[in-house]
Design goal:
Length: about 350
């Protein structure tokens, strides 16, 4: 473990909290690998939120960065740190069986999330990036939320929020997330679409888009084909688009056929696509940008990004997990903080092109 030093450039680096996710998954591994990236360390001061001894053990096993500054809850988090910081919750008190659902791991992961939210809300860190959690483990620990997004909204008393994914080639926002496909049509409603279109427009403007070009993906094949293949486009989606265009002066169009709208966005015609359901949006973004895509929560009172993958229990503890999405999530969080703060360039990152603005 090591100390810190400071200079004017380092003091401008954002403090990015990194929750290490489910201890039995690949979260600790990709988090440790990410904070050892030299380019990342020039952009921000990473703050791993986890158990210091557990992280040190894995750092030794994987021969990763082993120089850290340990900070306990209530202590000052140094912005000018020369090495990654560990915000030490000391909450892993027994052996962890890798690749298994466990209530103790769910509770630990929840502790990391809750601490990161508290640190963001108290402005002790500037943004947070999250490693993957296991929903079953969370449930076993008594945290009955369908995922990170809903849990974060609950912890921050946020009612207007949405899940989005950002990559160098495509951006998508989701109308629905973790619900059965058979129930999706019940959620394709004019009022919900208007709310989401307004949220997407407001959030993109906050982060630098003057007039976001928003496309709405149709629910049914060929956009319903004149209501032959479904009526939601005519009865719910088109009215929502027209109201937002005419009443709110939002540059939104659609509903566009789902089999072409994402290609059009990749080619530069749209800034973001609103998809009706989880896989409609995630299949195209993972096809064009797997490992580079970042989960970004719209509407929270702080910046939160995340990896685009799960806990990968099948490879947990083997040292072969790819950290690229974690690095992308941390860099995006740092860049968004600087942009919303009025600083458009990261110190020490002359060649860095953030995914949000590529």
């Amino acid at each position: 473990m090591a100390g810190s030093d400071g200079n004017s450039e380092a003091k401008r680096r954002p403090l990015i909290g990194i929750t290490i996710g489910d201890p039995a998954g690949i979260g600790p591994e990709v988090s440790l690998k990410a904070v050892g990236d030299d380019d990342l360390l020039s952009i921000c001061t990473p703050v791993l939120i986890g158990d210091a001894q557990y992280l040190a053990d894995w750092a030794r096993i994987f021969d990763l960065c082993r120089e850290f500054i340990i900070v306990n809850p209530g202590e000052h988090i140094p912005r000018d740190a020369s090495f990654p910081v560990i915000y030490n919750l000391k909450n892993i008190n027994g052996p962890v069986e890798m690749g298994m659902e466990q209530s103790a791991c769910g509770r630990a992961a929840a502790d990391y999330i809750e601490s990161a939210v508290a640190l963001c809300l108290s402005h002790r860190i500037d943004a947070m990036a999250t490693a993957p959690i296991n929903k079953k483990s969370l449930s076993l620990a008594g945290c009955n939320f369908p995922g990170h997004t809903e849990y974060l909204a609950h912890l921050s008393d946020t009612t207007d929020f949405a899940m989005a994914f950002i990559s160098p080639r495509l951006r998508v926002a989701l109308l629905t997330t973790h619900i059965p496909l058979a129930r999706v049509p019940d959620y394709v409603r004019k009022s919900d679409l208007i709310r989401l279109i307004r949220l997407v427009d407001r959030e993109l403007k906050k982060y630098g888009f003057d007039r976001p070009r928003i496309a709405l993906a149709a629910l049914n094949p060929h956009g319903g084909e004149g209501s032959l293949f479904g009526t939601e486009e005519a009865t719910e989606m088109q009215p929502a688009v027209e109201l937002c265009r005419l009443h709110d002066d939002i540059e939104v169009s659609g509903p566009h056929s789902g089999d072409t709208v994402f290609v059009r966005a990749v080619r530069g015609e749209f800034d973001i696509v609103i998809s009706c359901y989880h896989d409609q949006g995630l299949i195209p973004i993972k096809c064009v940008s797997f490992g580079e895509a970042v989960n970004f929560t719209l509407g929270l009172p702080f910046i939160r990004t995340s990896v685009d993958h799960g806990t990968a229990f099948d490879i947990a503890g083997k040292g072969i997990a790819d950290q690229s999405s974690m690095i992308a999530a941390i860099k995006l969080a740092a860049d968004l903080h600087l942009r919303v703060s009025g600083l458009t360039q990261n110190p020490g990152s002359a060649g860095f092109q953030p995914a949000f603005y590529s």
